[in-house]
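for the recovery benchmark. tokens below, seq after
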């Protein structure tokens, strides 16, 4: 057998998948990650990098393909870093994601818990209701509007994305054409110069849209021409917004907004409720699958109408209001001021009088509720990918709710946090997975925990 060194060629059998959907083989007991390889395949690979405990390889040839192998149906795949699973059937993708969750629960969390059910989507294309296209300048080919190449900030110019709405695609094409016509420069990350940074588009069930241009300035040249072109291409648009982000940062949105045309919010329906969404508001990108997720969260909460529920990381109040249908009282917390304003407005427009919303970091909000003597029966957490801080977990455990419902978008941080809850007197009861991010490596999990009585 050839030595395990860079550029050496080997024949391997793919045994499973990594957390990002790469195939995993073994050479001399060492895990080898092979992008584009499927479980069960016999492949010829070339090693790209050999570490102390694992290696990475390039797929040269598939000698015995899996029945689940598919030709990617997107011209930008695999260069674009958005979809990482277009080379496999959707059934194989779901199994890959289920395995990812179970591996994390076992190896990171040390838990005797398995996810047996993963709910796939009926619509795996054009499901995203929010698009954020980075914009860059290529001095040979011109303006590029699209997505970042995997593990880089090199923008792949994309005219149509199979995950985004066609309305978002149209908006991106309009901005690209406008920039070409009026010689409007794209933002340049290294120097901090240039103008247009991102094109941000929200769409709703009624195919209405809210379009935001993120710029390195408070004003744009030829604003009227841009607005007119966007409204013509997207006739159901309700507003065109300029967001000013003049900081040298990778964060997409700045803090200043100005309406160029129309209004600064969009309304959408979820779980029978109406939600007002501003540009920075958090709202699940896959509306249909979000309803499945929230119904599981509500079922796990097991509400009878007498409970007090605390919803940390509440965003615009989606889970809070779903819980408020069956709870006596719901208190939501979120650090984004505009999201809290939207959550309060959403509660009013849906007729809820049993809700309260705090604008605070999750840890501060939880500690505030402790000082107020609030004793929740149920706490729901839906944190970002980094999961919960130790302080938040400690405070939640101190509040001693009967049940905790954990909604997670990252199996690794979920497993880490569940281990800590388990060590502090909570029993991990059950978990279910929901595929909100079809054709990508991301997956959502809902977990129910109950407090073990002393």
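predicted aa per position
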């Amino acid at each position: 057998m050839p030595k395990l060194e860079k550029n050496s060629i080997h024949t391997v059998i793919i045994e499973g998948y990594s957390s990002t959907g790469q195939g995993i083989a073994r050479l001399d007991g060492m895990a080898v990650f092979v992008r584009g390889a499927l479980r069960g395949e016999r492949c010829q690979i070339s090693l790209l990098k050999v570490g102390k405990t694992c290696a990475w390889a390039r797929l040269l040839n598939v000698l015995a393909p899996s029945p689940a192998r598919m030709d990617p149906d997107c011209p930008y795949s695999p260069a674009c870093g958005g979809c990482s699973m277009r080379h496999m059937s959707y059934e194989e993708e779901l199994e890959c994601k289920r395995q990812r969750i179970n591996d994390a629960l076992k190896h990171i969390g040390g838990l005797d818990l398995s996810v047996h059910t993963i709910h796939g989507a009926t619509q795996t294309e054009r499901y995203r209701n929010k698009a954020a296209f980075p914009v860059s300048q290529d001095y040979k080919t011109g303006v590029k509007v699209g997505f970042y190449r995997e593990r880089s900030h090199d923008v792949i110019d994309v005219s149509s994305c199979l995950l985004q709405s066609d309305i978002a695609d149209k908006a991106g094409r309009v901005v690209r054409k406008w920039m070409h016509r009026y010689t409007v420069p794209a933002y340049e990350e290294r120097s901090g110069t240039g103008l247009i940074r991102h094109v941000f588009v929200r769409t709703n069930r009624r195919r209405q849209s809210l379009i935001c241009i993120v710029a390195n300035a408070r004003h744009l040249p030829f604003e009227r021409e841009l607005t007119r072109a966007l409204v013509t291409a997207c006739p159901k648009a309700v507003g065109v917004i300029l967001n000013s982000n003049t900081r040298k940062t990778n964060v997409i949105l700045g803090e200043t907004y100005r309406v160029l045309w129309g209004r600064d919010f969009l309304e959408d329906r979820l779980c029978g409720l109406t939600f007002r969404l501003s540009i920075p508001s958090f709202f699940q990108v896959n509306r249909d699958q979000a309803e499945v997720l929230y119904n599981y969260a509500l079922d796990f909460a097991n509400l009878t109408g007498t409970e007090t529920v605390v919803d940390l990381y509440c965003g615009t109040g989606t889970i809070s209001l779903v819980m408020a249908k069956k709870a006596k009282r719901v208190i939501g917390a979120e650090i984004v001021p505009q999201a809290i304003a939207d959550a309060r407005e959403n509660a009013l427009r849906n007729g809820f009088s049993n809700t309260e919303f705090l604008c605070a970091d999750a840890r501060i909000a939880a500690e505030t509720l402790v000082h107020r003597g609030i004793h929740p029966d149920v706490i729901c957490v839906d944190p970002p990918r980094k999961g919960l801080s130790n302080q938040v977990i400690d405070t939640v455990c101190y509040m001693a709710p009967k049940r905790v419902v954990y909604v997670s978008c990252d199996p690794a941080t979920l497993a880490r946090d569940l281990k800590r809850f388990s060590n502090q007197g909570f029993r991990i009861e059950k978990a279910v997975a929901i595929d909100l991010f079809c054709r990508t490596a991301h997956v959502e999990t809902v977990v129910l925990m109950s407090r073990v009585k002393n």
